[in-house]
Amino acid sequence: MEKRLEAGSKLCGKAARILLGDLRWRRLGLLAFQDGPLLDSRSALVLPEALLLSLALEARQLGLRTVLLLNARRDHYYSLSGELGLSTLRALIGLRGPEPLYFGASTEGSPLVSLPRVRLGLEWLSANPGALARLVEAASPVRREVKEVDVSSISALSELLMDKLGPPSFKEDLSARVKGADKYQAAADALSTLSAFVTPSSLISVGLKYAAKFFSLVRERRKEEYKVFLDVWKKNVQEAFSEERLSTLIGEDGLEPLRTCLDEHGLGIVIHDVIGTLHELFLPMFISQVASELGGEGSLVIVDGASYLAKLDWAVVMLCSLQEEAPGTRLACYLPTKDVPEYENLPSLLVTFTSERAGIFDTAPSHVDVLCEGKSAAFRAALLRNLEEAAKKRLSGRLAFALYDREEAPLLKLISLGPGFLARLKDKIKKG
Q: What is the DSSP string of 160-226?
């Protein structure tokens, strides 16, 4: 393993102990700006995956049965979607840790398919048809109601998803789904939703500057371009929600491998690659099932990249009210903010997970007002001062963040972590 990663892992262990504290919290938020390395210096490299893993390992040491959900679609050199990232994660877990599990629809071309699979339970879906209905409505770029949900079998589910998430008919108005369409403007979340249905091309991209071209295309439906657009949409939906692909995500007793990991190791690690894909709507349901069936008093669920789920209103409601469904379960969410569109539900998610205890590395400027809502001017000043100091510390090679705790640190506290004395001494000796 790269020496910078080893040094970063040690810093993560220190940070994890501070972030967990005395466990008097129910919700823990970890805010970052970029969804990439939290520290990238000459001496140490701290990846979000390493920090979250350290959090899980430390929580297990404190006696919590912990489930860690990691996002493999984070784009960096050590991404979990590649062999190097996966082998690095295994090295960080150690020989006595559990083998990671995989939740996703990939069948080939990814090292993740070599991992044991964990699935969303078909029986859970049957017992929670309302959740599926709301998520399908939110995921569809076309304004459609889902009143009757048949999840008696994979075949029935496949038929439902192809029907409700397929391209619009001539009578359906795709542009009506998007705010401000008449002015050639669009909400970023709507375009983001569409990008999962259509292979990114000149036809559509995520971002307001493409809105005018896209809606011109929608209005002039007879154009050949629009027909190609719908054909691609239909093909992608048929492939994504075929019975074969759905069977990789959903099944009977789908949580059994995860239950076994928790029983044997007190820790279960699930890697998923569904964020930003057509299968994304299954992730919040999977999280809900994990918490309700494997959570409870003395348990912790850690969700990587939770801010991306803010496009789905049911997902935000579920995350913010998880303790009602699974009393006693603690929930920690990693929330990158830079490349996340301004989803309508994102502010409530950020507020909920920074109201008790939070480690704030940095955040998008637009979210400062959200974090300071209802708080004093002194809090705003302390937040900005601590974030500036943390950024300076990271430039000097230290892992730094602002720690907020409603009881212990109501005006935040700067946490700055560096290598220990022996590590610094060895470094000086090497330099001569």
A: HHHHHSS---TTS-SGGGSTTGGGT---HHHHHHHHHHS-SBTTB-SSGGGHHHHHHHHHSTTSHHH
Q: What is the pTM for the complete model shown?
A: 0.90
Cα–Cα distance for residue pair 205/421, rounded to 1 Å: 50
Same domain for 90 and 191: no
In the predicted model, what is the mean pLDDT of residues 325-349? 94
Question: What confidence tens digit (pLDDT) does each residue in 196-207 have?
Answer: 666 543 333 334
Residue closest to 330 by CA, chosen among 282, 362, 298: 298
Cβ(117)–Cβ(257) below 8 Å: yes
Q: How far apart are CA 98 and CA 12, in angstroms?
A: 19
Q: Is the pLDDT of residue 354 over 60?
A: yes
Number of domains in the chain: 2
Residue-by-residue DSSP string for 395-423: HTT-EEEEEEETTTEEEEEEEEE---HHH
Are 261 and 375 contained in the same domain?
A: yes
pLDDT, residue 217, reads 58
Q: Which two tokens stand for residue 185?
A: 């403007």
Pairing of strands 65-71, 409-417: unpaired
Per-residue pLDDT tens digits for 392-420: 999 999 999 999 999 999 999 999 999 86
Structural Rg of the chain based on CA atoms: 22
Query: Which of 211, 245, 279 finishes a domain?
Result: 245
Q: Which pLDDT belongs to residue 153? A: 93
Under DSSP, is residue 143 helix (H, G, I), strand (E, B) or coil? coil
- Whether 250 is in a domain gets the answer no
| C-alpha torsion 260→264→267→270, nearest 10 | -30
